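Let's do one together. I've listed all components of the complex below, 511 residues spread over two lines.
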Amino acid sequence: MELSDLIIKLVLVLVIFAISLVVAMYSTYAERKVAAFLQDRVGPNRAGPFGILQPLADGAKMFMKEEIIPTRASGFLFVVGPSLAIMTACIGSAVIPWGPQMQIGSRVIDLQVTDINVGILYIFGVVSLGVYGIMIGGWASNNKYSLMGAIRAASQSISYEISMGLSIIALLMLTGTLSLKEIAEQQHGWHWNVIYQPLGFLIFMVCAFAETNRSPFDLPECETELVGGYHTEYSSMKLGFYLFAEYINMFVSSAVMATLYWGGYNYPGMDWVAAHAGPTIAPIVGVIVLFAKIFAFIFFFMWVRWTIPRFRYDQLMHLGWKKLIPLAIANIVLTGVIATLIKHFA
Amino acid sequence: MEPLSNKRKLIEVKPLNFWERAYLPAIGQGLSITMKHFFKKDVTIRYPEQKREFSENFRGLHSLKRDEDGRERCTACGLCALSCPAEAITMTAAERQKGEENLYREEKYAAVYEINMLRCIFCGLCEEACPKEAIYLDGDIVPTDFTRKDFIYGKDKLVEPPLNQ
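Okay, and this is what the predicted structure of the assembly comes out as:
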């Protein structure tokens, strides 16, 4: 690899990192605004116009607050927990194709940090690592409520990862590749996978809600039962990192959903745009389209959070093991049968 | 058992049908309800700038009234303090001197009149007990403060401003 390529990749990494942090930051603001609008309220509106500076104020507050490590807690693990949570949340974005190839001068740039041929597996691996952050945090706190929250998080993640994986298999049967870049390329124009895999998408989305610990599956931090859940003992920015990790996770999983099922950076009429706008501008439109989809998903996450009440834990397990897994398997069989029939007769 | 009224309603517990068990239609309905609220006007009153109108019979801060000549109505009879269930009112009476006829309406007046706003429950019994129509709870809400002693309101805060001002 040439030095210039390396620099481009480095810039891309930094840009994506910065974007995911900013998106996560403003998701906290958006969350509060969306909640307010759904409940006929105003939401934050004091810091700056429309409360735009609220995330900065929140961040400043988080850093200023007293940092408490409980005496009986395991000091090292207590710090490792939140760092691990936010780290795993951040590295998931490495394999997401943010746009088609972009041409600047004579150089062709991939708008993706790395196109590994097992992209989806990488995402799954990273996502399943995320639970370690919560688990370690809950364990290190030396608090029974935290431990319960952490255990819940772990069992929930493991349970839903199975049906998530199974729902992906049906998709992979159609696409024939694990590379996110190729999957995105295959959905050129409006051939989005959600048209061919509506049930698979539904299962995947429900699992994504559970994996990101978002309501209605936010049982690890169920305050009525567990005080605060796995982050009961956390204060200041360590708590902030946990909350932040959740928002980054939401951003990444929205990006994954958009890429896998909703066409990624593809949109109807993109060939026309590519022909008229040229190879430098057209990819930027693609990136904008992808981000529009991501924001729509993030909004949907919030919309659901302020609509549906939290599940009971046994209901959650029941849904995961007895409903979603059989459904996902049925989806695989159905996809296989239909795909074979189409191949046979068409 | 014999029903007490004809309002009794028989409730039938039917097993959920497939769509009800699938939850998704119900979730969709819920989402549509919250979405409707997204576009509704908010009901917030932005407090420090805007204030909600108090109702006619709102009981707020006390004020000691003056009569039409600007003299204090209170004669320090102590009925308000007696009627106060929270024992928030204390007063010291004094005799009116020569030359003070334009200040106090009758021979006796309250030299010190204090209401402890931390004890007051705004029941309005002082208002009802007062035979001289001297005390009314027609003010605003009690403002915040930092020390307990600042919540003991003396005559400087309670008495109405003089008429000619």
